[in-house]
Amino acid sequence: MSTPVTLVASDLDRTLIYSAAALALTMPDHRAPRLLCVEVHEHKPLSYVTEDAARLLAELKSATVFVPTTTRTRKQYQRIQLPGAPSEFAICANGGHLLVNGVSDPDWAREVTGRIAAECASLDEVRAHLRAVADPGWLRKERVAEDLFAYLVVERELLPEEWVKELAAWAQPRGWTVSLQGRKIYAVPKPLTKSAAVREVARRTGAALTLAAGDSLLDADLLLAADHGWRPGHGELAETGWRSPGTEALAECGVLAGEEILRRFLGARN
């Protein structure tokens, strides 16, 4: 009999890979882990994993269907060079694009955009509101991702504490969700979910077990849809105290959390 398929769907930024600012290397310098750069942007190193995490990830890819699951655009995702064999499937734009061997599945993209158009206020309306209520004193950039959702890049220390909650209250009845991740504030239509795309991959692969990890509120639906999940000791989910019966809250923070998540994935696979 063939071995049951395990699907591993993991968020990337601040879950498996980390910028220099997010590494959280709190130990003495001589005890810091060796790092491997997995992303270069504009000729500069941008994202890292530990060397142990690189080894664990390569092992995980050989034993499971590993699906990078990110809010990044396709272009942003393609900058990342993860250790191990290439993944057959990847999920970008928070579920808006299902990549199969690096190419977006057109049927999936069409299904997602159809649901958004039927259930949500338009992207133009949301962008107009963001521009109207954002303060130039703390707003640095306003961006659109894949013509699917919008995000702001802000000076976090200048951002009023209640502003994100007020934006979320405005967006909710219009079919949109709001998430604060580091210096970025995301406004995302509710049908645009990582979990829907992961369920489609599970259907195509016949996965018997789905494992997941993530750190932000945009990962909550992914964790709820998995048979078992993990969240690091940092990030939006940790800060809000988010929990679910199938999700384990780890104590580790920063790049060492990514390493521990990979150990948990390997330990729980079929």
Characterization of the model:
This protein has about 270 residues and is α/β, with parallel strands linked by helices. About 35% of the residues lie in helices and about 25% in strands. It is built from nine helices and 15 strands. The strands form four sheets. A five-stranded parallel beta sheet has the order 5-1-13-14-15, with helices on both faces. A four-stranded antiparallel beta sheet has the order 9-10-12-11, covered by helices on one side. It has a three-stranded antiparallel beta sheet with strand order 2-4-3. Helix 1 runs parallel beside helix 9 (about 255-270). The longest helix is centred in the middle third of the chain and has 14 residues, at about 105-120.
Topology readout:
Elements: E1 6-10, E2 18-19, E3 35-41, E4 44-50, H1 51-63, E5 65-68, H2 74-77, E6 89-92, E7 97-100, E8 103-104, H3 106-119, H4 123-133, E9 139-145, E10 149-154, H5 163-171, E11 176-181, E12 184-189, H6 194-205, E13 209-213, H7 220-225, E14 228-231, H8 236-240, E15 247-249, H9 255-268
Parallel strand pairs: 1-5, 1-13, 13-14, 14-15
Antiparallel strand pairs: 2-4, 3-4, 6-7, 7-8, 9-10, 10-12, 11-12
Protein name: HAD family hydrolase
GO molecular function, one term: hydrolase activity
InterPro entries: HAD-like_sf, HAD_sf, TPP-like
Instruction: Quote the average pLDDT.
Output: 96
Question: Strand pairing plus helix content: what structural class?
Answer: alpha/beta
State Rg: 18 Å
User: How would you classify the quaternary structure?
Assistant: single chain
Helix percent reads: 25-40%
